[in-house]
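anyone seen this seq b4? input:
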Amino acid sequence: MEERIFFHIDVNSAFLSWTALSMLQEGAKTDLRQIPSIVGGDMAKRHGVVLAKSLPAKAYGIVTGEPVVNALRKCPNLTMVSPDHDMYHRRSQELMELLSGICPDIEQVSIDECYMDYTPIAKNYTSPEDAAHRIKDAVRDTLGFTVNIGISDRKVLAKMASDFKKPDLVHTLYVREISEKMWPLPVSSLFLCGQSSVETLRKLGIVTIGDLANARRDILEAHLKSHGITLWQYANGIDDSDITPRPVKMKGVGNSTTLRRDALTREDACPVLLSLAESVAGRLRASGELAGMVSTEIKYASFQSVSHQTQLPSPTASSQTIYETARQLFDELWNGQPIRLLGVRTSKLVSETEPIQLNLFDYRGDVPASPNLSPAPDRERQNKLDKALDSLRDKYGKDIIKRGSLMDSPVNPVSS
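predicted toks r here
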C-alpha cells in the first residue's frame, strides 16, 4: 500500500502579514513585516495583547499573547496596528480557494493553516518537496504573502515541520527523521505541549522531546493523565489521523506566474497566457464549474499591478475561450513596459449542471459569438479536445503533453 504524505501549510505571522499587505495596497510606504511591529490591542489606550509580531519585533523578545504594554517596554519605537478580522477572513478564504484548486483534499484547522493530502496530486510533481516549493511560491506570487509548508508521513509531524525555521520555507519531518530533527528540541516545541505540561515534565527531568519519547508511559499517565500518553505518542511520531476534507466553495479560479525573465513583447506574453488559461480551465473542469467572467492581471518590472476583466457571452470552461479572452484583455491593458508577472482569473462561477442561457450565435456554426471567440462547432471540438487532454494528464501527469508554443516560453509554471 502506498504510504500517505501530508502537507501542513501555515501562513507566516498571518495577521501581521495580511495587515501589512493591505496597508501596502492602500499606498503605505513601509512594510510592517520589515520593521518592529505588532498587531493587537488598542492604539489609543495601548492595552490588549499581541496577536501577531514581525520578525524584527521578535528580535526584541516580544512574544504572541503577551500584554501590549510589556511589548512597548521591550521596544519603545514599536509600531502597533489594530486587527481587522473581516479582512483576515477574506485573506483566509482566498488562500483556501487557491489551495483547493491545487488539491481538493484539504482540512482547514484554523484561519491561517490547513493540512493537504499530497497523494492525489503526486503524479503531477517529481517529489513532495517539489510540490511544496511550487505551492509555496504560488501562494507568494499570487496572494502576496508567504507560508511555511511541513511535509511528513504523519499529520502531527507535518505540523511540527512547518514550525521549523521561517519564513517562506519548506521542511520535512518523516518518522525516520524524528530522532535527528525533533528529539533534540525542547518539549515546549511539541504540538499540544502547553506551559503547564512543560512544567510538570521538567519536574520529572524531561526537558527535550527525546526525553519524553523515551520516558515511561505509566509515569507520564500518572502525572498528566491521558494527555501524557498523547504527548508520548506525538514525541514518537505516532499519529494515525487522516485528512478530513471540508469543501471550500470557490468564488473564482485563477493562476499567476512570475516569469524567469521579464516579458518584453506580446510574443513573450501570449504563451504564458495560454499556459495559465489551460491551467485555470483544467481546474474549472475538474471541479465541475463554468466561469462567467475572465480577468487578466499584469505586474510590471516596476512592481506596479494592473488588471482588467470582462463578462463572457455564456459561462465556459474552455481553455481556448479563456485564453482568447485573456489575450484580448492583455492587448487592452498592456502599456508596453517589461512584465514581471502575468495572471489569469475567472469568477462568476456556476455549476456545469445548471441550465445555461446560451448566446444567440451558439445555435449557428457560421457566425462567431464574438469577434474574438470561436464559432459553436469549433467550441464543441475544443471541448472534446480539452476532455481528452484532461484524461491524459490525469492518468500520466500534467506534463505528459504540452503545446509546442510553450516549449521555449519565459513562463516559470506555478502549481495548478
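Residues 363-375, 410-416 have pLDDT under 50 and may be disordered. The first strand starts at residue 6 and ends at 11. kinda curious what u guys think
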